[in-house]
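Collaboration report, partner site 2.

Our partner group contributed sequences for two proteins of shared interest, and the home lab folded both. The records are reproduced in the order in which they were received, starting with the first partner submission.
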Amino acid sequence: QAWLVESGGGLVQAGGSLRLSCKASGSIFSINGMGWYRQAPGKQRELVADITSGGTTKYADSVIGRFTISRDSAEKTVYLQMNSLKPEDTAVYYCNAREVTAVMRTYPELWGRGTLVTVSS
């Protein structure tokens, strides 16, 4: 069995910073890609940032230069450093992991339950 747990969300003023963490737990051997998505009220879930097992990163245009994704493969943890936050970054942020190989099975995809980020103006 495998699962993802996010942490680090909260309330911050515009211009501030937050760091999100997502740890994969369970009897996991390996994880391919990991990433962060977000969903604002009334909007569809969108990709924020992604990082492959090889370290290749991808970002949504709206966060380039402000957000940085990183990963500690040994700890099975992915981070999202968010700087210069804007009110439009307010959303529930979800962690995603792809091709998770665990003891009993391989999971094509796992999702965390989400962590709320609120940016006040």
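Second partner submission, folded after the first:
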Amino acid sequence: QVQIVESGGGLVQPGGSLTLSCTTSRINFNIYTMEWYRQAPGKQRELVALITPKHDTNYTASAKGRFTISRTNAKSASYLQMTSLEPGDTAAYYCAADGPNWHPVRYWGQGTQVTVSS
């Protein structure tokens, strides 16, 4: 059974930093685009950042310059480094593994909560 597990969330003060981790199992990690989403209460889930198997990255406007997505194929893991956190970043953060065109499937994790508050 495919497993996608996020960790690293928590409470942080404005201006602080957190690094989220996403570990995967039972997928051929190297062919998946790894994505980080977030969902704040009462809002739709939004894509924050993604990294392709070739390590190309893309960020939402609010994440550019503050967040860094990375992946380590040897560990089948993806990371989201978040700096200069703001209260508006408060949300549940979800990791997803998005398959290639010939294997159109997206696996989701259960999410990890990030709360930015003083």
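Feedback sent to the partner group on the second submission included the following. The chain has a mean pLDDT of 97. The first strand starts at residue 3 and ends at 7.
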